[in-house]
Prior knowledge:
The protein is α/β, with parallel strands linked by helices. The chain has helices spanning about 20-25, 35-40, 70-75, 95-105, 120-130, 145-160, 170-175, 200-210, 260-265, 270-275, 280-290, 295-315, 330-335, 355-365, 395-405, 420-435; strands spanning about 110-115, 135-140, 160-165, 180-190, 215, 235-240, 250-255, 320, 345-350, 370-375, 380-385, 410-415. It has a domain at about 295-435: Alpha-Beta Complex (Aspartate Aminotransferase, domain 1), CATH 3.90.1150.
Amino acid sequence: MALAMKRAGGDDLDRDDVMPPAKKTMKPLTPTWEDPVAALANARHEFGEHGGVNMSIEASATFTVMEPETMRRLFSGELGPDRDFFIYSRHFNPTVLNLGRQMAALEGTEAAYCTASGMSAISSVLMQLCSSGDHVVASQTLYGGTHALLTHFFPRACNITTSFVDLRDHDTVKAAIVEGRTKVLYFEAVSNPTLTVADVPELCRIAHDKGLTVVVDNTFAPMVLSPARLGADVVVHSISKYISGGADVIAGAVCGPASLVNSMMDLHQGALMLLGPTMNAKVAFELSERIPHLGLRMKEHCHRALVYATRMKKLGLKVIYPGLEDHPDHTLLKSLANKKYGYGGILCVDMETEERANRLMNLLQNCTQFGFMAVSLGYHETLMSCSGSSTSSEMNAEEKALAGISPGLVRMSIGYSGTLEQRWNQLEKALSRLQDSNLLHKN
């Protein structure tokens, strides 16, 4: 663990020990490298300016230099954050950069850049990888905002088009690739909201054979899956969800090759640099203090989700959860997942109609206090939403049907507050009331 030395009295342009480039400080891979917790523990720890165990917050928007010539060298790209030289916090900020190191360690990539939101991470990386006239192949089951970006905004504003496919049909994926035009294969490791698990290694093989870049959204499965270690080129996150854990921060991340991150920060052509979805240093500090607890939180989210899904299925509900053996992707997820972290913290209950879905959520929140009706996920309390009329509302009826989103699909992000049995009793009471009202749909 290295404590970054501060420049004092001069710019010391020829020193290599100010802040060595990340590649020089990366530890060699060990047999436990695929475990995200081990990777995070091996990542560089940034101490505070006065020796504090936590890093200092660099709240400055702009940075001074000691010699006039240094400014020219900064803007020419000759000097940069790898040598502890900074220009302006829209470009690089030391505190945000440190969070990026943690995200890179978490996902097993060379580098990462943290942004102001998950959507800004997704849109920026796709705009960097694609030009006007290019084409994307994407999963037909995506978060509604991403689907709208690809369906409506990109064709209008950027002349970038997308073909949506069933990821489970690999022949269809191959057929959708247009030679010379398709640049990216985009999908979610575990889809929102239907919990379809992507065969990341096989999809990467198909894409790479055609020269495509594979971009994977891993928001639903941090710790559980490591797409970059399974072959993906870029991993994006909405840090607002599990990684934050507090439902109080909006943030995103792009994790991938250092060459890509650097290109996205280029002063003339960089999507992040020029679009400016900058993360505040104070937000980065808060998030960096939460990442060390992510493994513990994910294990509990996933444990409770599996217990509730198993019990709900025994009661006769139509439960969708990849941890259940009858889920079509259970064996696949088991083969790809990092061991000991579970199968994800989200489960779905298909109530078939929006009326039944709303009745269930109303009882769970307002009568038995099991959770809250709210979008998002990864909070310590359970959050519930009817996906078709909320987070997937950007999709039309045909698109929802193709994606497998039922009008009564209730997505539950299972929390870990209270005891497991306490929360189960609350859930069971709500289900009993539904049964009394003849609104409980069973298989």
